[in-house]
Specification:
With 471 residues, this protein is of the alpha+beta class. Helix content is 42%, strand content 23%. The protein folds into three domains: 4-133, Beta-Lactamase, CATH 3.30.450; 137-315, Beta-Lactamase, CATH 3.30.450; 321-467, Alpha-Beta Plaits (2-Layer Sandwich). It is built from 15 helices and 17 strands. The strands form four sheets. The chain has a six-stranded antiparallel beta sheet with strand order 3-2-1-6-5-4. α8 packs across α9 (247-255). The chain is elongated and about 105 Å long. It starts with a helix and ends in an 8-residue tail after the last helix.
Length: 471
């Protein structure tokens, strides 16, 4: 047998020799670091500025890698693919728990040993992401990911195109299910952005899950990933690791008939947007699947971040931020849709509601008090006219559009609003209501409702002349 230490000392990069125990059942045996050069040992034992260190113990040749670090499924899969299956491995890793990136290369070694298989492990550490290393992928992966990128960048309907892309990725992985899930841990919410399901697979889409606790599973994935950009579970042994570390999630996986899974966080500018995964994939092709999903996740996250930003900008341009109802610009655009015949409706109800007493509150109590009055007013309208469209038409004026609502229902709501407006010291509105059972022209409906609102306003000032303002 060759002198492993002498062999590894010939490398000018951080290099070690790894061995994997041979087993008859295709399970991953004990992985040992048999030898390592000084560059490798110094790098692994070095404590960074944040107090992080890769090796928790001093290096002893021939020891299990778990002497130095926590059990790492991705590392074990790399070792198995290289040493046992004799496949070269290249990966670019950006572990969040460390301040550096790792560009690693593994090559199978032809060493005659009935009990162990061997491979070399060389790595380069950088403190900034290396684009060249990230793009050093197989031609097959490049072709597939390039198609994904072109589809996403050229679309005008991201949702539809994302569905196509996720189905393509599901087929590449030969997976039963593939999903992109968005999360908001601040609001404790989750949603499925896109998913693809293999017919007759026996797997259900998580769209069918109604449990709000699912976001708790997603939150636990961050801890389970432990700073890694990918988690790959390909057999019962890997599932057992999850059983020990995350039993609640393990139970949900077993209940969902999940036998294998690859999970990736969707991250953009340091923020976790959600997660991307495939279940019950072709475990004989793990390296290719991992490489494809890692790079695809990069572009998927970028497109989703851009999509969310555009939605936020559109929301900001269309919403009145004080009252959280749509603004006058949105109202005008909506009216244009009616006039262009883009809105289908059978009956139309229009309510104008003008907030009474805003100017005296602003003058006597300050604009903070006036802002609070406006917020309370919008909340009252949304509570009273649930299921309708709301717009802030002006400073103290609101428009409510009610499509295909019974006249009696709307009349009862208007009456309830007027009764609430009679309570001293509470929010008070002047209200104008117009209803057309045949739909009709929205311009006529708005004109009539506005005129009736002003009549109601005059009656209010007749009762409270001290609050009179110029109409």
């Amino acid at each position: 047998m060759m002198d492993l230490q002498k062999f590894v000392d010939n490398f000018h990069t951080m290099t070690s020799i790894l061995s994997v125990e041979k087993r008859d059942d295709d399970r991953i045996g004990t992985i040992r670091i048999e030898a390592a050069n000084d560059l490798y040992i110094r790098a692994m034992e070095k404590v960074d500025k944040d107090g992080n260190v890769v090796f928790k113990e001093k290096f002893v040749p021939g020891s299990s890698y778990e002497r130095y670090m926590k059990k790492e499924l991705n590392f074990e899969n790399f070792c198995y693919e290289c040493a046992i299956k004799k496949k070269p491995v290249h990966a670019y890793i950006r572990p969040e728990r460390y301040t550096f990136c790792i560009n690693l290369y593994m090559m199978p070694l032809a060493i005659d040993d009935p009990k162990k298989a061997y491979c070399s492990y060389s790595q380069e550490i950088t403190f900034e992401e290396n684009v060249d290393a990230m793009s050093n992928i197989s031609a097959k992966t490049s072709s597939n990911v390039l198609q994904t990128c072109i589809k996403l960048r050229s679309t005008k309907n991201l949702q539809k195109t994302m569905d196509e892309v996720i189905e393509d990725i599901r087929k590449i992985c030969d997976a039963s299910y593939c999903c992109v899930m968005l999360t908001d841990f601040n609001d404790n919410t989750w949603s499925v952005f896109s998913d693809a399901l293999k017919p007759d697979s026996g797997i259900r889409s998580i769209r069918e899950l109604k449990s709000e606790n699912f976001v708790d599973y997603a939150r636990s994935w961050i801890k389970t990933l432990n700073g890694s950009n990918c988690l790959m579970i390909k057999n019962k042994d890997d599932l057992e690791v999850i059983h020990q570390e995350n039993p609640a999630w393990y139970n949900s996986l077993v209940a969902a008939n999940v036998r294998s899974l690859v999970l990736l966080p969707l991250e953009y500018n340091g923020l976790t947007l959600g997660f991307f995964w495939a279940t019950n994939f072709d475990t004989s092709n793990t390296l290719y699947i991992r490489e494809t999903l890692e790079l695809s996740a990069f572009f998927v996250a970028s497109e989703i971040a851009n999509y969310q930003l555009l939605n936020q900008l559109e929301l900001l341009s269309s919403m009145d931020l004080l009252t959280c109802v749509k603004n006058r610009n949105s109202m005008n655009n909506r009216v244009t849709q009616f006039l262009n015949g883009e809105v289908q409706y059978k009956s139309l109800g229009i309510i104008f509601a003008d907030l009474n007493g805003l100017k005296p509150v602003n003058d006597n109590k300050g604009h903070d008090a006036g802002d609070k009055l406006l917020k309370d007013a919008s909340q009252l309208l949304k509570f009273t006219f649930d299921g309708c469209e709301f717009y802030r038409a002006g400073g103290d004026e609101f428009l409510i559009i009610a499509l295909d609502k019974p006249k009696e229902e709307l009349e009862a709501k208007v009456k309830a609003l007027r009764e609430k407006s009679m309570i001293p010291g509470k929010v008070s509105f002047a209200v104008g209501f117009y209803y057309d059972a045949n739909g009709g022209d929205i311009r006529i409906a708005m004109h009539e409702a506005d005129a009736r609102m002003y009549e109601d306003k005059k009656r209010y000032y007749d009762r409270f002349p001290a609050n009179r303002r110029r109409l």
